Amino acid sequence: MRLPELGDRAQGWVWLQALLMAAIPIVGGLAAPWPGTVRTTMVVVGAVIVLTGCALLAVAILGLGDAFAVDPQPAARATLVTSGVYGRARHPIYGGWILVALGFGLALSPWALPLVGLLVVELWGKSTVEERRLEARYPDYPSYRARVPARFLPIRAARAPLHPSASR
After folding, report:
1. What does the mean pLDDT of the chain come to?
2. Are 166 and 144 in contact (CB under 8 A)?
3. pTM
4. Which positions of the chain have pLDDT values less than 50?
5. Which contiguous run of DSSP H or E holds residue 5?
6. DSSP state of 155
7. How many of the other CB atoms lie within 10 Å of CB of 20?
């Protein structure tokens, strides 16, 4: 099954992501909080996960430099970034957003967690559309994808380097 583009620059995926990311703290803030016995623990764990997500976002955005784009369309002057955090995960910005959303859900209310699950599904779809565009633009993308199997979180070691000079 081929996922729809949702716009000429796939901007519909961006709007879906924004909607879900806004809904998580709204629902979490309006819904019943965690029971008192676990509330403090969940707030602390959630805050740590939010901070971890923010750190991943910062590293991933800075790592892209001029290649950063909000929508899934590669920027006009962009080159394929395969080093740094991108040597360990193909879409670490999305991983950062997942961690931020999860942290908010854990800190606020169990009722926000299903929306976090929907965000993960949405980002999987968005990254699938983005990878089609990256593959069409960069001939080395399929080998990069094979070398870096982690989609969102840089938790696995990368496989053999794309090029011998890439390990420097």
Report:
1. 92
2. no
3. 0.90
4. 164-168
5. none
6. -
7. 20
